[in-house]
Amino acid sequence: MRKFALNLWTQLFATLVLASTFAKAEGPSWQAEWEKTLSAAETEGTVTVYGQARHPVSAAIQAFTKFHPKIKLNFIGAPGSELGQRIMAEKRAGKHLVDIAIGGSGTQVQVYHKAGLLEPLRATFILPEVRDETAWWGKKHHYADPERRHVFIMEGSVTTRMGAYNSELVKVGEIKSWWDLLDPKWKSKIVMTSPKVSGNIQSWVFIYVSPDLGPKFLSKLLGEMDVAFSASERQMMDWLATGRYPIHLMAKPDNVQKAKEQALPVELLFSEKEAGSLSSGSGHISFFKDAPHPNAAKVYVNWMLSKEGQLMWQKIAGDNSLRMDIPKSMVNESELPREGKQYIITSQHLDAVKPVRELINRLLP
Questions:
Q1: Do 218 and 249 form a contact (C-beta atoms < 8 A)?
Q2: Pick from 188, 165, 189: nearest CA to 175
Q3: At what angle do helices 294-304 and 30-44 cross, to 10 degrees?
């Protein structure tokens, strides 16, 4: 019996030694890796983020400094197109000045990713809560680039909104689908911003890629309904309220709300039949190759995608984070994506921009 016990202890000891050896072979724990990265980041002392200059997005980007005061945030804010030109010029000159980009998907996917400037973002994840995909909507991380590795989608607001209508001229429930807009009775009675206006393309991409709508619907709307266009949102709201045009497609909800507060006969118009779109706005983050401050950049990414960082993003930027384990009381309930429902994530369909523009140019020469 004593010999058996001795053999048992010998085997147990050997097992513990072997386990310890494997643990060492796997490298340091995430805590050790995080502490090492944080220390190196504080030694680097700076992280450079190129991002959307528009407030409050810029304020949300810079909230990092409150939580990591030992790392200076060098924030370069400008519209995405300007930042794209600036970074490409820097890279051509052999200058590696940017660590992180935050903003819309267009520049990050079509410029940075296309030029091969980005690292796979998951390689920067250290904190377990950031690595864990189950905390996010759909139980997974979402990316905008075709490889689904480089341009992370942090936010997403759902809408089935088509625009607005004059409640004295359109009956409640009379229009429940985008296809209802093609009724001959609405010919020459719809106004909207021209699809040729810069920055207006994403709404049309949604229609183009929607399996419920597609090029056929777009062709009929723009080719047969004699739609009117205006560059002035205020003018279109005036036309809507006075009844000159009973339908204002893609009207901005804030303007509709202001009109309602003035007791004007306008209401938001929603689709009850087609799938909604999930708009990710300026909520995209990417990590550059040859980052001048790689450790500080990793700290920034891990903070921004943590519960703490995403709560700050949601509070300050005012847009719904796709991280679902944080409070949502400050988000309009109608904009929250539901688990199990399918939405068209417009930033994942940037390859449709060119054919959409070509179709629009044919319909509206």
A1: no
A2: 165
A3: 120
Q: Are 292 and 48 in contact (CB under 8 A)?
A: yes
Q: Backbone phi, then psi, for 239, in 5-degree steps?
A: -65, -40
Show Cβ contacts of residue 59 under 8 Å, excluding neighbours closer than 6 positions: 316, 317
Query: What is the Cα–Cα distance from 237 to 251, expressed in whole angstroms?
Result: 8
Q: What is the 3-state secondary structure (H, E, C) of the chain?
A: CHHHHHHHHHHHHHHHHHHHHHHHHCCCCHHHHHHHHHHHHHHHCEEEEEECCCCCHHHHHCCHHHHCCCCEEEEEECCHHHHHHHHHHHHHCCCCCCCEEEECHHHHHHHHHCCCCEECHHHHCCCHHHHCHHHEHHHCCCECCCCCCCCEECECEEECEEEEEECCCCCCCCCCCHHHHHCHHHCCCEEECCCCCCCCHHHHHHHHHCCCCHHHHHHHHHHHCCCEECCCHHHHHHHHHHCCCCEEECCCHHHHHHHHHCCCCEEEEECCCCCCEEECCCCEEEEECCCCCHHHHHHHHHHHCCHHHHHHHHHHHCCCECECCCCCCCCCHHHCCCCCCCCEEHHHCHHHHHHHHHHHHHHCC
User: Quick one: tokens of 278?
Assistant: 């999930």
Is the Cβ–Cβ distance between 336 and 168 less than 8 Å? no
The one-letter amino acid code at 116 reads G
Ordered by where they begin, the domains of the chain are 30-157+280-344 (3.40.190.10), 161-275 (3.40.190.10)
Q: List, for residues 299-326, the tens digit of each pLDDT value.
A: 999 999 999 999 999 999 999 999 999 9
pLDDT tens-digit readout, 1-29: 444 444 444 454 444 444 444 334 444 69
Rounded Cα gap, residues 156 and 277, in angstroms: 9
Residue 158 token pair: 């759902």
pLDDT band at 99 (very low <50, low <70, confident <90, very high): very high
- Contact between residue 63 and residue 114 where contact means Cβ atoms under 8 Å apart: no
209-235 residue pLDDT tens? 999 999 999 999 999 999 999 989 999
